[in-house]
Amino acid sequence: MGRVTQRRKVHRYVLDGSPAALEFPVRHREDVLAVEEPLEIRLGGLSYSVTMRTPGDDFDLVAGFLVSEGVIWDPDQLISLRFCAGEDENGVQTFNVVEAQLRPDVALPDTGRHVYTSSSCGICGTDSIDAVRKSSHFNPAEDTLTVPLGTLASLPDLLREAQTVFDTTGGVHAAGLFSIDDDGGARLLCLREDVGRHNAVDKVVGWALRERRLPLTGTVLQVSGRASFELVQKAALAGIPVLAAVSAPSSLAVELAESTGITLAGFSRRTSLNVYAGSGRIAMPAPLPR
Length: 290
Hints:
Elements: E1 5-13, H1 19-23, E2 26-34, E3 37-43, E4 46-53, H2 58-68, E5 78-83, E6 97-102, H3 125-135, E7 147-148, H4 149-161, H5 164-169, E8 173-180, E9 186-194, H6 197-210, E10 219-223, H7 229-238, E11 242-245, H8 251-260, E12 263-266, E13 274-277, E14 282-283
Parallel strand pairs: 3-6, 7-14, 10-11, 11-12
Antiparallel strand pairs: 1-2, 3-4, 5-6, 8-9, 8-10, 12-13
């Protein structure tokens, strides 16, 4: 998998109570780790942001990050992406700096990453939600998608089946974009994995931008972790009507989902899930005959 994974020697301690474990409690072996490296994003020759990510799909990551920051929303606004010169101590190209060239009429943001909020934001929630609403060029509330309950509950398993890097390392998040067929079935359009859950979503959104698929009407974004404010923000700015997570949402994530018309599901399992906003998009199964 190239720079996506790395093999490291480890000492594995076994405490299963077996005679072999008591006699030889430490076993020497190799483990496969997910790679984490910094990526610097430059706009107009100036550094805009640095993010820690798993290398791979970096152009998708940068494109999606710019969509998620409200800088661009149309593929024609992004003229080019290129890796800049950068070498490690051994003189090997690191591919850890990406320069994005934007169309001249696109307003460049202030140097240094601007974010709407963070988990330590305190009382800025209302301002943050208003900022997302004003920045978005798409309106998920207008999306007429309906998703069968059983299909939505099945997405975590479909996502897990496609997670090749997680199979090897057990150390990455995943985001999967699904379309819903006329018969109610789900089809995986794009899956990305990364040590950062936000990066995984940005890589999906960036793929969609570069494939000229924005806004992502009629789609469901399934993520492997929890549903934070930032993930709902990214979904709203990409025009995604449904976001589902295997873990819990935050209170501000629910408020933003309600405000932007996104259906937000959490604790999604094979046989159950919680819908925190936009339950009108969920198609209930027919009742069993008595």
